[in-house]
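Morning, I've got a small favour to ask if you have a moment. I'm working through a protein record and want to make sense of it properly. The fold is given in discrete form, as structure tokens running alongside the sequence. Can you walk me through what the tokens say about the fold? Thanks so much in advance, here it is:
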Amino acid sequence: MERAAVFLAELAPQARRVLEYLLRNPGRRVHCTELVDKVLGGPDEGDPARRVAGVLSGMSRARSRSGRRYPFHWWEAPEGSAGATYAVRPSVAAVFLAARLGR
């Protein structure tokens, strides 16, 4: 839980919002377009997959400083489809929720 608290403290605001959205939807695969629409202020001219990947790549500092792996899994889109999906395991979501509450 301590490493999760350090991880959260190191996140940039957009990365924190994306992670918190995933934490509120544990166990569910969330498509990158949903993250753009619900968390990142809606579509722009750019590719939603690249936009989300750019935000999440900013978590590398939190990962290295906390000594824990990324708290989400991701899956590339099947061939012929666009965008990746992301998910947080329910057990990981529980740890991060406890860390946010300071328990």
